[in-house]
Amino acid sequence: MLWLGIVILFIIFAIVVFLFSFIRGEFNFTRVKDNDTLSVEMRALFGLIRYRYVIPIIQFKSLTKGIMIKSETVTKSSSELKDETKDHITKDKIINIYKEAKVALVHTLNFNDWMKQTLAKVECTDLKWITHIGVGDAPETAITSGAIWGIKSSLLGFSIRYVNLKAQPHIDVIPQYNEKHFSTDFRFAGRIRVWFIVVAAIRLISRAAKVKGGIRTWIQIVMKTRARVKTAS
Q: Which of 7, 15, 86, 172 is deepest in the core (most CB within 10 A)?
């Protein structure tokens, strides 16, 4: 009986540690001339669970083919990128995603309130956005730099309203006078406790259950998303 009690206490302790641990995420995007790189990394259980999604190639093909992306994934069990896939983001795919999002909004009670409550629990631990810009003429470069500063300030102010900012943002626009140049480096790192995700999921299910057909609609959307991911891979 003593061993059984110890096992039960250990299981309870492990569950509590898991619920109060963080899920950490990083989003990075860089553009230098015509080269784009986008990566998303997720870590949980103190780094024991890790998933990284990298898009090293983003190419605009045509109006009909849309944008071609080459993506690679890496997990904790492998330190090398693997599972290389290619996909085209077309206008029809974007329209379908938009329609599914509208359906989800209609079938969820006060979805915007749920989103604000969830984002309020996200802690931003790193925010960097550095842009080098030059249009070949010094006065025009100065005007363009000022416009980019305005855009960045607006976006930063909008994001601070919803996310718990824990780090000092590093935002800058560096003019490149008398040359044509554009490069940008954006990084966002955040974290949220597993407990808050569990609570958010329960709240979402509860809100969907209060709308006729809400649960069924969300299940259909999740199944379609899974099928789309499998097809792309």
A: 172
